[in-house]
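Check these lines:
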Amino acid sequence: MFVRKKKNRSGSVSIQIIKKINRVNKIVKTIGSSKDPVEIDRLFQKGLYELPRLHGATLFDQIHEPNIGELSNDNIRVVGPELVFGRIFQHIGFSVINDPIFKDMSISRITHPGSKLKLSQYLRENNKEDISEDRIYYFMDRLNNSYKDQVEEISFRYTKKVLGGNIGIVFYDMTTIYFESDHNDEFRETGFSKEGKHQNPQIYLGLLVGKSGYPIGYDIFEGSIYEGHTLIPVLERFEKRFSLQKPIVVADAGLLSSDNIKALIDKQYSFILGARIKNESANIKKQILQLSLSDGQIEKIVKKDTTNLFVSYSLKRANKDAHNREKGLKRLEKSLKAGRLTKSNINNRGYNKYLKLEGEVKVEIDYQKFESDQKWDGLKGYITNTNLSGTEVIESYNNLWMIEKAFRISKTDLKIRPIYHRLRERIEAHICISFVSYLIFKEFERALKDSNTNISVNQAVKQINKMHEVYFQYSNGNNQRILLKNNSTQELIMEVVNNSF
């Protein structure tokens, strides 16, 4: 038995599973037909997947020519990434960008994240194509100019569809991505690093996602920018680009500033922002401390700028705050005893706020300030101009963990950082590819979860990378590809993919 591509008079190509009986080809099953080369390839791959099921025999029963002993490791190819992630890539709609390198780079970022040299080696070792690093870099040089808008359009359209056709709430946050270099330029600059790489040049990545962490869009900024200055430009760009109907914007306290709040109000955005309650006016702080909240209780304070400040209290958070303060105090006491603290350490960064200068040169710990901070333990604030209740505001804000997860997936699973590129167009291409990979990753994760498989994406990737086919040539010159039999986990993964996409 084998899989055949049959050209029809209409111009379409039918994919059929054929069994030769007495030198006559008999059609066992027709997988489907199409005129689209990408769809034809997908149907062919599906036929290869169906082949061992229909045949009901081992690989060695199916091969008559050449002799099994003539086959080598070079005849074995990894096909799992293409069968699974290539299918999702096409399902989302990215296959309209008709460049195989684009798909290979997007998929390999999930299955074999690493440098472009590793991508070239991976493609070569799996007999897909001998693609040089130069060709990969040439593609990257034109990716951002040629395809970024199209990538965003496809991603937004797909995310909107997954979210039921309406994007009523969006989540925005930023992270830093560092470079393995000591060279700064107007784009890669040193600044405050969220990864502790203060000595490395970096860029900022701003990510906008919808519910469940589905990506809407992204933007990148120079490494020294104040993150609060990025929110409005990103919102306006995507609102104009995709005609967003003023969704509720949820963002972390790092983006909170009077200028941002004023701009959001002036541009008629609804928002929920984390509040720095200790930085509020004396009058507001007095009102907060007079609330006497119990565990789980929420109260509202109306501010002069027409926004509402919701304050909640959590006993669990209070215990954590107290533990962290004690831990910070012990570190200060240890450093003070060792003589490592000087006048330059007196600032408001972290627990250094408990330091004070006694006389002109002596640094001491202000224990009174340490004790007075106790009354803030367990309190958290949220600023909004919506009509939502306190519970709804907090539930919406708490969903910011989804964007934190998006960054974690990008940095850990997709290994978006560190970046080794120097040219801006390649840096932007690297981020664009990672954005595409993230959406594919999300869809696969959703499919696994909806199917109740109890298989994580990382566990699945390991199995997918072990799905192989044998590729050989008959003496008459015809090529044949036979998918090796999957184990039970791989069968389950393919069942999920076939049912979901």
Notes: The chain has three domains: 2-130+454-500, 136-279+383-442, 317-376. Residues 233 and 261 are 14 Å apart (CA to CA). DSSP finds 16 helices and 16 strands in the chain. Residues 136-279+383-442 form a domain with the Transposase Inhibitor Protein From Tn5; Chain A, domain 1 fold (CATH 3.90.350.10).
